[in-house]
Amino acid sequence: QVQLVESGGGSVQTGGSLRLSCAASGYTYAVYYWAWFRQVPGKEREGIASISGSGTTYYADSVKGRFTISRDNTNDTLFLQMSDLKPEDSAMYYCAAARAARSGIASLGRDQYGAWGQGTQVTVSS
Questions:
Q1: What's the whole-number mean pLDDT along residues 52-76?
Q2: Could you give the dihedral angle defined by the CA atoms of residues 16, 55, 40 and 67, in that order, rounded to the nearest 10 degrees?
Q3: How far apart are CA 76 and CA 83, in angstroms?
Q4: 3-class secondary-structure state, position 71
Q5: Is the dihedral of CA 13, 42, 58, 70 positive or negative?
């Protein structure tokens, strides 16, 4: 009952920056946790960053210090600011929402989330 639509993906050179957006609609008032995931063909979907309803954030080691997750509650939009991009960041990026989730590393677990966007492709070239 929560619909998510990602946007902002594209191609960027190594070291560049990109901001992804996730527009939410539906029963967003029931969402307590939001997160960004990424996936490449043949691999498991990987949790990158999460943010709780109270604003607590958590990042995977692979993106810590380079990516920033944030929310605009007035517009029901989730953001992922990506900087110092590397070729290994190339993936399909998905946003996700959950009514509740464990904090810390557990908030990056795929099974915690019940609503997903369709994904937006990010390609980083050297």
A1: 94
A2: 20
A3: 23
A4: strand
A5: positive
